Amino acid sequence: MSPRTGRPTNNPKNNKITVRLDDKSTKIMELYCKQENIEKAEAVRRGLKKLESDIKK
Predict the structure, then answer these.
(1) What is the pLDDT of residue 51?
(2) Distance (Å, rounded) from C-alpha 2 to C-alpha 15?
(3) Helices and strands in the chain, H and E counts
């Protein structure tokens, strides 16, 4: 059996983070994920992409 399982990808997600959210943020996350039919991790990735434009270079 292969040591690697799952779908092959060109964009592996090797980094893991853990966050604690207040009730309001959790509700926003749940509503957005339900509306867009996505997982929480994808919602976080989308949020980070929106923040990218705020980075000063």
Answers:
(1) 95
(2) 22
(3) 2, 0
